[in-house]
Amino acid sequence: MTTTTATDPAVLRALLDRVRAGREFGANVYSTLDVLQVLYDRVLRITPETVDDPDRDRFLLSKGHAVAGYYALLAAKGFVPVTWLDDQGGPDSRLGDHPDRLLVPGVEIGSGSLGHGLGLGVGTALGLRAQGRFDPRVYVLLGDAELDEGSNHEAIAYAGATGLANLTAIVLDNRSASHGWPGGAASRFTVNGWTAATVAGRDHEALHTALTGHDNHRPHVVVAVVTDGE
Amino acid sequence: MRDTFVATATAFLDDPRTAIVLADISAAAFAPAAARHPDRVINVGIREQLMVGVAGGLALTGQRPIVHSYAPFLVERAYEQIKLDLDHQGVGAVLVSVGASYDRAAAGRTHLSPADVALIDTLHDWTVHVPGHRDEVPGLLRDVVCGQDSAYVRLSTQSNARAYPDAGDLRVVRDAGPGAPLLVAVGPVLDQALAAVADLPVTVAYTHRPRPFDTAGLRALAGAEVILVEPYLAGTSARVVGAALADRPHRLLTLGVGRSELRRYGTPADHDRWHGLDAAGLRRSVDAFLSPVLA
User: Which residues on chain A are in Cβ contact (under 8 Å) with B59?
Assistant: First the structure.
């Protein structure tokens, strides 16, 4: 079963504007939108009705600051009521500047401090495997600057060495790491035995191919490059 | 205690919910268990942040993780993972450490962890066990692993001569009668505490569970003088005792490991002496504290 309902970009933009409420958002908010659309439209097997199904796919937003598009998409897909988008970050809002899994249906992890999602994703993948659940897959979205955090490299090395086949990392590469990743972000994964695809982060077909390109024997990384400033 | 822990935790693997997460420490001891349950005995290598993150992820899928390493690497190095990957996600794990304050005194500061319980105590609703004898380990471990919440179990090579497996709540070991000064010993400092006050009219109570502290038992036993002896940072439980007795005039003496870095090696017994936690040192502190009432 794959959800194929395409999100209308105009609807998504309108929902994002509702979150934005006149505020200025950084480029990271917009650079994540395309990946999120492809994931929720065409890849992730999860619906508002299956948020507690143990056999659902897991999407872990590790770069928790990229939250506005995430909330807009969760509203577009019916995980949260659209009215929740108003007064985001306000005293009575359930939607903070970083997501909280205990407050927002469909959110798998609370994130914000960088470098926690991939370790949680490795543990989630191990838990599913221990339970004999070989169908669901774990997707973790990181940023290229987030890769600075050493905790990621503990997870990358371990997942690669043990062939954690049900894990996909997505690195949204908007070239924001202060010291860069000479040779490309993907090489940090492939040297540890991951399969990798580096694609244009706004090309939905290329993203879809990359996000479904795992070989079921090794962990997979998709580096989505977004350099157009938005 | 470590051998008892390994045997007990290995037996828990019969429950398919149980998972053991290691970062090389004790991996050899768990090797037979790992051979039988390769998906649920997970050694991530020397990666403590990942160890706790993995525990959080396992718990998110419904597993019950037991996480084990040296105390400073488990609690201090991975503190943010404990705070965020467990507590903030709303999931629990059982953390089991070895090393205690200075079990490997000759290893120096890097392997000493007197502040571990105080750090865990910054978090909400954790259960903390500090067993004083290996025979206390199986029962308390079963209690916390069978629960859902987070717990910290602090194992040590230091031990009392006798086990009190049921001493989660305060257990009176020596009763000096109503109104007598009360000494509460936590974990493996009981024997030296008993020796220190052997000829004094002091009631001695023991617990291996400083959190949640048995405040009802404390209120039932405490008079105007309370002495707390803990094998980790001095004063760690002062706030709990102070709050429990807030409505009563009382004096509190908190004894434990000092904050200064001694930069000395030696043995655990040497460090007990240097921190005033041997019988003679405890006696000096107790005499000074009680001199106004026992003079």
Answer: 123, 127
Digit-coded pLDDT (tens) for A100-119: 999 999 999 999 999 999 99
Contacts of A127 in chain B (CB under 8 A): 19, 57-63
CATH number, domain with residue B67: 3.40.50.970
Query: Domains along chain A?
Result: 9-225 (3.40.50.970)
Query: Which of B100, B120, B154 lies at the terminal end of a domain, its last residue?
Result: B154
Domain's final residue, options B126, B154, B182: B154
Alpha helix (H) ranges present in B102-136?
116-120
Model ipTM?
0.96
As for how many domains chain B has, the answer is 2
Q: Per-residue pLDDT tens for A139-151?
A: 999 999 999 999 9
Stretch B21-41: mean pLDDT: 98
Same structural domain for residues B177 and B277?
Answer: yes
Tell me the pLDDT tens digit for each residue of B236-274: 999 999 999 999 999 999 999 999 999 999 999 999 999
| B162 domain-assigned | no
Q: Check A102 against B90: CB less than 8 A apart.
A: yes
Residues in chain B whose Cβ is within 8 Å of chain A: 16, 19, 39-40, 42, 44-45, 47, 49-50, 52-63, 65, 80-81, 84-85, 88-90
